Amino acid sequence: MADVVDLRARTERLLASDRLTAPTRAALRARLDRRYDAPRLFDAVQMQTLGAVSARLIPDPDLAAAIDLAGALDAALADGEGDGWRYADAPPDQRMYALGLDALNAAALDRFASPFSDLEPANQDGLLANAAEGGLDIAGGNGGRWFEELLCALVELYYAHPLVQVAIGYDGMADAHGVQAVSLAEVAKEDASLAP
Amino acid sequence: MRHDRAQAPARRFADSDVVDAVVIGTGAGGGPILMRLAEAGLSVVALEAGRRWTPAHDFATDEQAQGALFWTDERLSAGRDPLAFGKNNSGVGVGGSTLHWTAYAPRAQPDDFRLHSEFGVGRDWPIGYEALEPYYAEVERRLGVSGPTPYPWGPPRDVGYPLAPLPLNGAAELMARGADALGLKTSPAPNAALSGTYYQEGIGYRPACSNRGFCQAGCSTGAKGSVDVTFIPLALRAGAELREESFATGFERDRDGAISAVLYRDRWGDQRQRCRHVFLCAGAVESPRLLLLNELANSSGQVGRNFMAHPGLQVWGVFDELIKPTRGMPGGLISEDTHRPKGADFAGGYLVQSLGVMPVTYAGQLARSEKLWGPALIQHMAQFNHIAGVNILGDCLPHPDNRLTLSDELDGRGLRKPSITFSNGENERRMDAHADRLLCALWTAAGARELKKVKRNAHTLGTCRMGATGDDAVVDADGRSFDIDNLYICDNSIYPSALSVNPALTQMALSLRVADRFLSRQRSRP
What we know:
The complex is a heterodimer.
Chain A: H1 4-16, H2 22-33, H3 44-57, H4 61-64, H5 69-78, E1 85-87, H6 93-112, H7 121-132, H8 143-159, H9 162-167, H10 184-194
Helix pairs in contact in A: 3-5, 3-6, 3-7, 5-8
Chain B: E1 19-24, H1 30-39, E2 44-47, H2 55-58, E3 75-78, H3 115-119, H4 129-143, H5 170-182, E4 187-188, E5 198-200, E6 204-206, H6 227-237, E7 241-243, E8 247-253, E9 259-266, E10 269-280, H7 283-293, E11 308-311, E12 314-318, E13 333-335, E14 350-355, H8 359-370, H9 375-381, E15 387-394, E16 403-410, E17 416-421, H10 426-446, E18 449-454, E19 457-461, E20 487-489, H11 504-524
Helix pairs in contact in B: 1-6, 1-11, 4-11, 5-10
């Protein structure tokens, strides 16, 4: 991952440019500047577990400090931002995420006599791989679905972040100048013209 | 929170007026009906659960910010293949799901309407392609569909597409390359987005598509022919009244059982609009839900039954070429050579399309479908600008056990949530396996590496099917309820079979036909 200072500078240049429409700039600006205060839904242990989980699912140490995925998920759930559906055999989202984090931490304590957040990365990955396969025992729920929902939610929050979008070279948000290059040849030509 | 009714916008019709029709929903089902009835001089009120957007002002080129276009009231998903709703399906706001429609606009083929006659499974439609043909042409003209003339598949057409095809993007060029190697015929796809400036009486000029590729997150320019920029302006010009943020909850009936008023809730509280007819066009989840909540129009026991969702396998890959996958129409290229594949071990068939994609959608799908995480996820997504996909859209057989019921859980309005049970049957599984082989071969021939598969079903269909008799269908071929004379249903819920094409274009054609049949019946009354 690119140097975060450089990435931030490039993102600020994009936001300051005339390549974004006003609603696009407003949306990206708000997300870039967003900070999360004390968690509203998860307790301290759950937040620690969630932070450790997200560091393994989306291992990006350089950007992790700049992008508070655990805070973002807590806020989205506390705001009741539903996604329009849930598995009929899963508890409501707000409870389901917390139950899964509790179950994962309990599995860590049971197997390694240590909270999940203090485990070696390899042991954390082992427990997560087991959860992905449905091996996590969640009261009133399905461990595999918990993993799927959590992974999907974190991944969507992560790739919606302007720093990450700039880091992967995505420039689809910069559409204020009208007609864009489409074909392989045109896109290659456009890229060559943008090269330093 | 209750608001002061005095702050409400001025209305053309009062609640106590008996209007000719109330249309519930303003998407691909309700929009065309609203326009047709208003232009015929009827007094019509549309109820829309969401708000009316001003795209140039409101729409960001950002997936998360555009989440408000999706129907996010919670639905419960059960069965062996529980469906993802939200982003995957229904829309909210004036224009309905056409707001986040890909704009892919192929016509169904004549044999799609006769699946049972051809294969002995599924259902025939009570109307055929001939009945819809003139309406297909009308809808293509009204939306401004860009596509190839002549179109390489299906019967010859009297009129071609009103606009030339849109330019091909990277995914489309790569699919053409792979298809050439495999001997599969392809064509630029018909898309309801403008390849040139387009003028329409009563609407004015709509601009050519700028290739920004955000069709599925709302078109900010008006180039896409979503219902809000095509049918709705004409309906309003003809005198229809549109009530935003108005959620239908029930009905009043007279002594003969006919509906005499629609009950709904808006910001100011519970409301009631008296009417002579109702057109229920709230989609294949909310339409049956409203009927079940009110125990209405269900003497057949079919309301909620035969929920269908198109098999929609996607295969993605990484290419050497720089693609920038949001550029251009998401579905640029089409092949219908698989409409009735030779030697297939399943009924019906599918179409193949190329796929561009937005980053959050792509990453989320991979997480859900391939459970990609850790360094593998980061490395794959770092190549986002080199990603392109292909997918299928295939027929889905109706099955009575795939159904919508009411859960005991209540939503924020105090109404029972819908619960949808869905399992792909043997036919869908065989089709999926066939498509899996073909798409992987196609993408490998095109030069893709790191193939990723996204197993999915798309669209919400069935649950209030039309048919010849009220014994096993909810509405007749004109969309009229067998139980209640002045209740019409016209949205994807009345599809008796799923058809092997994306449903929006056919829906709009069907809606115009339902409106015309209704109007001609009104005129012939003494």
